[in-house]
Design goal:
Elements lengths: L10 H12 L2 H5 L1 H7 L3 H29 L3 H8 L4 H34 L5 H16 L14 H18 L3 H27 L4 H9 L9 H14 L6 H7 L7 H34 L11 H14 L4 H36 L3 H16 L7 H42 L9 H26 L9 H4 L1 H18 L3 E4 L2 E4 L1
Antiparallel strand pairs: 1-2
Length: 505
């Protein structure tokens, strides 16, 4: 069979690829806001505990099981027992759904590279106040709701096609090229982030913004909200529960160090998030000072931070606004690129190659083409509404629930102690017996807390996002459909990979 026994050419390629897969848009636009919203320095305490107790062990699980069975997620669980293969397919659907809209956001970024260079939304205070209308009105042409789909925005479709071409040119060559490309992608992205950081902290009012970023409110640690936010951020930011880390682990040489790799990846990713917060909130401080507004009037959450607040800031710069506007969105696109080909290749293509015996080129073409076509949905005037609904389904529910299932099957069926022994065979530092109990109990319980507290307790009471019931109910429809398809794929008599060897199922 083709596409098996791939290897990273150098250990550093694996590290950069894993870091690149973890670092993405959420590091810049989600983490800083959560830190501000949930007690500043207090959030960092909950976040670091979540990283150490859940994030690193979960990443070790996915890296370690991928290397042990030399396969993507479905092959790993088929290796544990054929009846468990569906557990590996569900996160593949998470990767598929996430990829279809994630690359659309990258297309928006390319649109803004050009728009930012020319300050298309305007300059000065008038331009700063017009950024929201420019994004939602001119770029997205946003419709009133999910029931009004409208036509695709063809400029976004063009940038979407261009981005998928780039993703294909990287992923169809496999792990050796992905590893080499990832080290340059990450170094360039970090260089751009440093430029934005330096410019941000030299702006008037930057200190005021940083005070909001890290102002401690330790009382929040007594509530469930901060723990929900911290644990959900850890899961999403490390790209766990999306199948791809199993595949990346399968490319590691038999003597590769899993424990060190997981630790370095986790802390490099989270260090980037923390650093990005300084760039974001120094910018917010300047905007507060320049426009005479409070922190609550600066759009710091989600898309508003990237496509409203930052464009407002560059409009107010006395000099170099176009340069920094273009640099910011080019950085965004580059940060997202490594996550995009991680999802497309490790999360989707590898499982399909291993299941059906397809070649890498054929699989890459199919994955990129299908994801592009589905992605056109999100380029329509109602696309943003559907993006939010699908994001809630895949990047929250499937991601976390598949993590719960993975921890239970690996911990109790395969044996957490066996995984620990496999990891320790080649690791510089040995993982202790605590690892077994984290995988078997702490990880599934922690993830279930996040799903119940931040998911079911809200979405079963009122429709998600304030959308009509029929639209919000698509979350549950997609969950059921993807779970059902996972069982169907398990039943398909394909070429399942167990222990690195192809066998007819």
């Amino acid at each position: 069979m083709k596409g098996l026994r791939e290897r990273w050419l150098r250990p550093r390629h694996f590290i950069f690829a894993a870091i690149g897969s973890a670092i993405g848009l959420g590091n810049v636009w989600r983490f800083p806001y959560l830190t501000y919203e949930y007690g500043g320095a207090a959030f960092l305490i909950a976040w670091m505990l979540g990283l150490i107790v859940l994030g690193v062990p979960w990443l070790m699980l996915e890296f370690g099981m991928g290397r042990r069975f030399q396969s993507g997620a479905p092959g790993v669980f088929a290796g544990i027992g054929r009846r468990w293969e569906w557990v590996g397919w569900w996160p593949v659907f998470a990767s598929f759904l996430i990829t279809t809209y994630y690359v659309v956001i990258m297309a928006w970024c390319l649109h803004y590279v050009i728009g930012g260079a020319t300050l298309a939304w305007g300059v000065g205070e008038a331009g700063a106040k017009a950024t929201g209308d420019y994004f939602f009105g001119e770029v997205l042409r946003l419709s009133p709701g999910p029931g009004v789909l409208g036509a695709p925005v063809w400029s976004i479709v063009g940038f979407l096609a261009l981005t998928w071409i780039v993703v294909y040119l990287i992923m169809y060559r496999g792990a050796p090229v992905i590893g080499r490309v990832s080290q340059y992608v990450m170094l360039i992205a970090w260089a751009f982030l440093i430029i934005i950081f330096v410019r941000g902290i030299t702006l008037v009012g930057a200190v005021d913004g940083l005070n909001f970023y890290l102002a401690p409110d330790f009382g929040v640690l007594l509530g469930g909200g901060v723990w929900f936010a911290a644990l959900s951020q850890i899961a999403f930011t490390l790209s766990l529960g999306m199948a791809g880390m199993f595949a990346y682990g399968s490319f590691v040489a038999r003597r590769g160090d899993i424990a060190n790799s997981a630790t370095i990846t986790s802390f490099a990713n989270c260090g980037t998030s923390f650093f990005a917060g300084f760039a974001v909130f120094s910018t917010a401080g300047f905007l507060m000072h320049a426009m005479g507004v409070g922190i609550e009037e600066v759009a710091l959450k989600g898309l508003g931070l990237a496509f409203v607040a930052y464009p407002s800031m560059v409009s107010m710069l006395p000099v170099g606004g176009g340069f920094f506007g273009a640099i910011f969105f080019l950085m965004f696109w580059i940060l997202a690129l490594s996550s995009a080909y991680f999802l497309a290749y490790g999360g989707i293509a590898i499982p399909l190659m291993h299941k059906f015996g397809w070649s890498r080129v054929k699989t890459s073409i199919i994955v990129c083409a299908v994801c592009f076509l589905v992605g056109i949905l999100y380029t329509t005037e109602g696309g943003l509404h559907w993006l939010k609904i699908v994001d809630r389904t895949a990047a929250f529910y499937i991601l976390l629930l598949s993590g719960v299932l993975s921890a239970i099957v690996v911990g109790w069926v395969y044996g957490a102690d066996k995984l620990r022994g496999h990891i320790n065979e080649t690791s510089d530092f040995k993982v202790g017996g605590w690892f077994d109990w984290i995988i078997k109990i702490v990880l599934p319980v922690g993830l279930l807390f996040v799903v119940i507290y931040g998911g079911f307790a809200k979405d079963l009471v009122e429709p998600y996002g304030g959308y009509p019931l029929w639209a919000a109910s698509m979350i549950w429809v997609l969950l059921i459909v993807t779970l059902g398809l996972s069982f169907l794929l398990q039943r398909h008599k394909g070429a399942t990979i167990v222990g690195g060897k192809g066998r007819r199922g």
